[in-house]
Predict the structure.
Amino acid sequence: TVSVLYWRRRMMARLAVLVALCIATAAAVPAGFTVVRNVKDYGAVGDGVHDDTAAFIAALTIDKATVNRTGLWNASQYGCQTTRPSLVTVPAGTYRLTQTLPVPYYTQLVGAEYHTRATLLFQLPSGASSYRCLDAGTDEGPGHGWYGGANQDNFYRQIRNLIVDTTGCAKCTAVHWMVSQGTVISNVELNLDSDGTGIYMESGSGGFMGDILIRGGHTGMKLGNQQFTFRNITIDGAGYAIDVVWNWVFTFAHVTFRNNKVGVISGANAGSMNFIDCNFEHVGHAIEMWGHATTLYVEGASWKNVSVTLRTLFSTVTTPYAGYFVGRNQTGEIALYELPPAQRPAALVGADGRYPSVTRPNFAGPVVRLNLTNGTDVTDTLQGALNNAAAAGHAVLLPYGTYFVSRTVVVPTGTRLEGQVWTRIAATGAYFANASQPRVMLQLGEPGDIGTMQLADLLLTVQGPAPGAVLVRWNTRAALPGDCGAWDVHFRIGGAQGTGLTGAECPTTTPFPSAAGAACQAAHTLLHLAPSSGNVYLENVWGWVADHDIDSGVQTNIFAGRGLVSEAQHGGVWTFGVAFEHSFLGQFILNKPGAAHLLVVPQTETPYYQPMFPLDASTPGIGYNATADPSYGTAAAPNAMHAYGVYFAAASASAPLWIVGAGHYSFFDNWNSTVCGSVVAPCQRVIALAQLPAGSNASTLSSFVHAANVNIHGARDVFDAVGGDQSTLKELSALQFPNDFCQTASIL
């Protein structure tokens, strides 16, 4: 006890100095650097005749990237960085382009909204072919791409509200998109040459894209990535709509395949594919699978004029069913099952029986632009501005900057708040210093509120140690899906210049609990869906407790308690392409919710420094709460010091958990990656756990959990279930369900 008090007093004594220092040195853009860049300010004309290539390249690359050699670009002089953000805007018009356009790190390329979208007309000189119009990651090799040598770190990019026309470019690719988390392509139309490719992605660790129309082409999307979510995409007239070269887990939701020779073809290195509410219209072969280990889940499909619905190495199916499952059964054999219509929870579907598909709002109507002082404490001014905007019914634009908050800001119900190049709001100060007395940075509405709460393009973070900070507590409940939602909103804890939580302050040798560890204890909870909340829609949200500095690449030990905690009691909760990584008590913690939950590709990673300390009240300073936090008791023995990817404490069968594709990974054991690859001696035992109410048994598990293609790596079991007394009800052993790199199992 004495040592705990000593650490706490020492941290508090340093806190005022650290806060002042951090605010003074908060990461700022270099002098003379332009954040918001209109291509017309760089000479673009937009009449479809003039060559606007040079203007676009200037807007995209000045102070961000340099020419390496003709046609290829690099950002190695800056590497990955957080201090050179740029929003490149493209007014309505048609812009003729004759060279590849690089899309560097921390860049958003955004056209005018919806019906006034700009067109990028890609035309090459006579005889030229096989170019890329937009390139978010070169293939020159390590150190020469946009990602500083590791494609898994190719974060923070957007392409939105554009039409890309490559019909005049033979064998060209509209978008090269080798990316990871924090990226998006949305509200984009791609018109292709008959030999062209719409989106080419050969590697990365993503990710989300949606609201895309692809017309024509040889291949609509050629894909390779660890995990990805695709929503509301139409591929019309491509010979091969989707070619999955390799993956760990992909989920396609609300995708329409129309006038294709083949809808989906997957090769020998494909892992897990999931399709929910997809339409196949006038397609020869809907799905072709040529991998020995590929698992497939199809739910809620519709078929119109399809010759072959499913073709695998061992069977051809021509009779259309609402669903299919291909994977290993309990005996370890790969089998194909034709599924009846899924009995979806009523709280998760609309009147048509389908899951919601909600496009990011365009925040139309009167918009208030807040003029806050970058790099200062804006608690009071932000509170007043949000109150006034909500009262007037205006949307709010918060321009790019880093804005500090030293007390709770209550965001009124009715708020529609949009940032700019991931505007940063950071909790800082003594108010957030006690993990045993957690305090909220942004409180969304009051308990009992029903109405609108919409957020987009924000980056929520902390400045210096903030062990008691709950970055967001969501109280407002929506009447309809999408009234309450977050799109392209990310949480980042440390790992960036000026945060006071970098490799210099928090190297991988930092122990916890200790005085040094207390200085690197950075958050209590990233996102809390409070009991009063419900009908919350989350899309492309990434909660990252940094394992390395983006700016320097130096690895870090940063300690944050919880990722997403949901206690929502009303309606449904939907997550599409949402990831939480490296919180020490768990990434997705669903604590007796009364709301049904649909998680589409929840992606998690266990902290790299674990095992380090017991995950219970015996560890001082973590603010463990036995009634709200996961139990790491006998179910996790013999090793109870690795965080769950998903922990679901079920309240009742009327509020079940549905998962469609998941990726839960345990890559390191105390920063040692060599010991985690074996399912015989993995890093941790349990990575996904359901705790059912008293009186439950193994036969009732499917009433509480419906999980299609849960993919794990580095754990002994894919998914476990325990009873109210912690007795084991179900263990899905990873040994039983091998699938290429991951192990994959389902509860259907």
Observations:
- Confidence is low (pLDDT under 50) at residues 1-25, 139-147.
- Helices lie at 2-24, 53-61, 379-392, 515-518, 701-704.
- Residues 538 and 575 are 5 Å apart (CA to CA).
